[in-house]
Design brief:
With 280 residues, this protein is an alpha/beta fold. The chain contains ten helices and 13 strands. Strands 1, 2, 3, 4, 5, 6, 7, 8, 9, 10, 11, 12 and 13 form a 13-stranded mixed beta sheet that branches. Helix 1 crosses helix 2. The longest helix has 17 residues.
Length: 280
């Protein structure tokens, strides 16, 4: 286990407040609540095991993410595992903040250091004193507005190899399998300078996601470059299956071309999905 500035009482300050999402509590709460209010009433057939949500700036993907987080309203999840890619080239396979809290304009979210310590007994965890990664943090305001207080188990996957997915799923199952907390995978879909390519690639990637086979999804997303967080999603599919998640329900999908009306130039796909199991 590598420790890089482990600070058990510190706050990992937001790296994206005021840019990727609003920088004040009032404006951020209003934006998130507006997205949630814009989701039609819906339910999933069974118990919610996990979510897949995008991680672009809220003006682009926030409404898509809300289709997943809307399902959490009225639910109680005292612990949430959020898995994401790491776009910044920090060294290490599995990266976790070394701080005790994540900070957003809505307040702080406590990191479950006991769970991280237990994971570090099985995995080469690198703890970071500071990081600029957006893909994990951007999920937190939605969780704060829907769940209130909860303990966070945050893991960023740097390489996202299939072996990493298997090892992380095994370790999380060993540490948290008795409780089976909510799982969240953070991933955008295809990135390309072609609206049509994004549409076609997203369709294939989402079809693989809906089949629910973790390795099949990993292979498809890796081959097509169809999801930047393919390792995070594959890990949640692996673990979700162990925890009773038998079905993947696609909740909503779109792309930045549809959101902005700018279909030329760089386009990014977004999707939200729920992993569900039989009702308890």
């Amino acid at each position: 286990m590598r420790r890089e500035g482990d600070s058990r009482n510190g706050v990992r300050s937001s790296a994206i407040a005021g840019t990727w999402y609003p920088g004040t509590a009032e404006s951020l709460a209003a934006m998130v609540d507006g997205f949630l209010a814009g989701v039609p009433e819906q339910s999933v057939p069974g118990r919610l095991v996990g979510l897949v949500a995008p991680h672009a700036g809220y003006v682009y993907s926030g409404q898509v993410a809300a289709y997943g987080y809307r399902l959490l309203q009225g639910q109680h999840h005292p612990r949430v595992v959020v898995l994401s890619p790491c776009h910044v080239p920090y060294p290490g396979r599995f990266l976790v903040t070394g701080m005790r809290f994540y900070g957003t304009p809505l307040g702080t979210v406590e990191v479950d250091q006991a769970a991280v310590d237990r994971l570090a007994e099985q995995l080469p965890i690198t703890r970071l004193r500071a990081d600029e990664e957006h893909s994990l943090e951007i999920q937190l305001p939605f969780l704060q507005r829907t769940l209130g207080e909860f303990l966070l188990v945050p893991v960023m996957l740097r390489d996202q190899t299939w072996e990493d997915c298997q090892e992380l799923a095994e370790a999380l199952d060993g540490v948290l399998g008795g409780e089976r907390p909510l799982l969240v995978a953070s991933s955008d879909l295809c990135h390309a300078y072609s609206y049509r390519q994004v549409q076609e690639t997203d369709a294939a990637t989402l079809a693989a996601l809906q089949r629910g086979d973790a390795h099949g999804f990993w292979q498809t997303a890796w081959r097509l470059q169809g999801a930047c967080g393919y390792g995070a999603v594959a890990t949640v599919l692996l673990l979700g299956r162990r925890w009773g998640g038998e079905q993947v329900v696609l909740l909503h999908s779109t792309n930045s071309g549809e959101v902005t009306g700018q279909r030329s130039g760089y386009v990014v796909g977004y999707g939200a999905a729920a992993i569900v199991g039989p009702a308890a």
